[in-house]
């Protein structure tokens, strides 16, 4: 597999390499900032790596995720206010230094630049400048990663930076919405997001506590600033007089449930991906992926598809592990608690929930599936892209692809998803009134479930393959059947008369 330097013009490659060298020239100035992780900790991890046979990066990431639980207990015990914010910031910085070393500085630099924009410009302008800056920064990170390590999966700053991008982007709109509401102006999008609006710029300690929040800095979820601030100042649980707003629920089971679930998901991922690897385990960057090598292509199409379905199924458990682990780490100090309703009843623990595994795996349509997967990213796209662009699916999926990076596989997937969405909307309009009875496990519901799974698994394969030629070869050997069937479905079903609505 050719790297980007084999594809781009020579003059452009030289320019990129000079830019990378210039950026790297600052590393000696930032290396002295690595003061939070003692040397003996790194030595211990390296020793553990040698004894277990796991690479250092993976161990550091896993340990960083699990360290959040004892840190969460400390966060819970700290008094409300700036102490919590300061702890969140410092320990978030510690985790970044522990997992990605000197690259942690990207998180600090981009956070401070965005804060400077918030200070200097009015909210109306900052809601444009900060998202542009945040997206430009992550764009540079993605392009750098793809250039120096094409198709590689090494741990670097881009993962945490993607989470930070959502936080900065959201906060920019939160502040704008707060200003709109304060001034009594009528804006539909701001009204829809009023529950997460922020009326004034947080102080620098509160702001860094949010952008570096230890419980979400490595794998998310990037929930709204208001939820984080409420958890840190106690207003989620207590009123202004210090009286509980309701019966405060125990956080033990909301912490243990996702923790135990994450351990199960980690085990399933390790075992399942070992049995059904998607990429070549010996050389994932250069050798043909397992699903398109000569041996695979010699098999019948149904056998190839069944293998790829299983491979993608097990890959998802890697994400389930990270999100469920982070959920428990937030719930332990009530950051995931939704608060109380007007009657003093506890609402639930959805703030830090980023995945509903059962709902996703049994989704009868794309809308349900999207709502169950990476929920906080879906919220970000819905609140700050979809409704701000007049409900544009192409803008929403395009932004999602742009945020993920620039591998062609992302764009092949995200630009194919609207086709499924159009078919789904048409089916809901023309077919569901005829066959659906509103029950998920009805015969019609089960058919929808199977159809959704088959089509999504077909469409999403380029997302994991990344490279254009790998993705096209894969779809080509299915004869682009998913796209063709979707077009046929749309053309045929659109000719059916729309059933009349039943009168109440």
| Helix segment tally | 24
Radius of gyration: 24 Å
Q: Can you give the helix content as a percent range?
A: 55-70%
Instruction: Give the CA-CA distance, first to last residue.
Output: 61 Å
- Supply the helix-strand structural class: mainly alpha
Main pleated-sheet profile: none
Mean pLDDT: 93
N to C succession of SSEs: HHHHHHHHHHHHHHHHHHHHHHHH
The total beta strand count reads: 0
Tell the overall outline. Answer: globular
What portion of residues belong to β-strands?
under 5%
Oligomeric status: single chain
Give the low-pLDDT segments.
none
Can you describe what's shown?
- With 504 residues, this protein is mainly alpha-helical.
- 65% of the residues lie in helices and 0% in strands.
- The chain is built from 24 helices and no strands.
- The chain has helices at 10-24, 27-30, 39-52, 56-77, 82-100, 105-120, 123-148, 158-182, 188-192, 204-211, 225-233, 252-275, 294-297, 301-331, 357-361, 366-372, 375-386, 393-404, 408-414, 417-430, 432-435, 443-465, 468-476, 481-493.
- Helix 4 (56-77) packs parallel to helix 14, helix 17 (375-386) packs across helix 18 and helix 22 (443-465) runs antiparallel to helix 23 (468-476).
- It is globular and about 60 Å long.
- It starts with 9 loop residues before the first helix and ends in an 11-residue tail after the last helix.
- The relative contact order is 0.08.
- The mean pLDDT is 93.
